Amino acid sequence: MKIGNVDLGERPVTLAPMEDVTDASFRILCREAGAAMVTTEFVSSDGLVRDVSKTIAKMHTLEEEAPVAVQIYGNIPEAMVDAAKMAERAKELAGGHGADIIDINFGCPVSKIAGRGAGSGMMREPDKMVAITKAIVEAVGKPVTVKTRLGWDDSSKIIVDLAERLQDTGISALTIHGRTRCQMYKGEADWTLIGEVKNNPRMHIPIIGNGDINTAAKAKEAFDRYGVDGIMVGRASFGHPWIFTEIRHLLDTGEELPPMNVKDRVTLAKRHFQLSLDLKGPVTGVYEMRRHLSCYFKGLRDFKETRIKLVTSKDPEEIMRTLDYVAQRWGAEAPEPEGVYGL
Known about the structure:
- This protein is an alpha/beta fold and about 350 residues long.
- The protein has 14 helices and 11 strands.
- The chain folds into 2 domains: about 5-255, Alpha-Beta Barrel (TIM Barrel); about 260-330, Non-ribosomal Peptide Synthetase Peptidyl Carrier Protein, Chain A (Orthogonal Bundle), CATH 1.10.1200.
- It has helices spanning about 25-35, 45-50, 55, 75-90, 90-95, 110-115, 125-140, 160-170, 190-200, 215-225, 245-255, 260-295, 305-310, 315-330, and strands at about 1-5, 5, 15, 40, 45, 70-75, 100-105, 145-150, 175, 205-210, 230-235.
- Strand 8, helix 8 (about 160-170) and strand 9 (about 175) form a beta-alpha-beta unit.
- Helix 12 (about 260-295) packs across helix 14.
């Protein structure tokens, strides 16, 4: 599967953008685990055009992550176009590797974004969504992709027609989350409409499906049953970045890997923690790893006291010692991932 000139291989599995989750340390880990492509956290178009340093810093990517997409969001056409131009210059403005792809966020359902007309809030203004997308495609030279949802609510699932209109703007790929904005993350993702978009004879760009892929078996079923070109994994990777290894192994060999034991999870968690420390320093690196560390060990019995220690300590060495204790105490255990991670 190709997105513009970016070749992701056959049946690629990519990492979804998630605010406060998909920072550089996590993106690197997921790439090492087998993710074909990763995406930054949400980058505000308003923040970029106002030259907010924290927003610009979100575009900083590393060579180890490539290929990587920078995702922008907003609802003001001029600001979105200017932000896309800045994303194209991410290497110059933020340093590092830069952006291989510019992704437009028309899918985030959280109120602070969708409630003001950005993210999936744009589903209520499809004409404006299409116009913004067309303007961005015409303004930049890098491949442009869109991530969106089925519609605003159950009475307005417009994705089949909208997908054609977005394709006609010149985007290079479309990712569809199988829920409406009003569903948020509740209920089950509806992959039938994703499949309908993929099987529409007018569609010729890659279609990437997203929603409820929390096991390798579900990823394989999505490819086999709905014919999508790629899969995007979001919440199920949180505390479970090796899901990309599991999916890739099943797709390539037809066999499922056994659940990862705690000793190996500790090795991965320590790698993740060290990356966070190296990239963000001992204060921010510790603080921002708290949301990850306890999730690595969900499902372990009698883990509450140790989890509290992991997420309250400010000392990197103490956290490393605690992780060593986890490996010693629970090392051979391997909780089943389904129903534990991501959802």
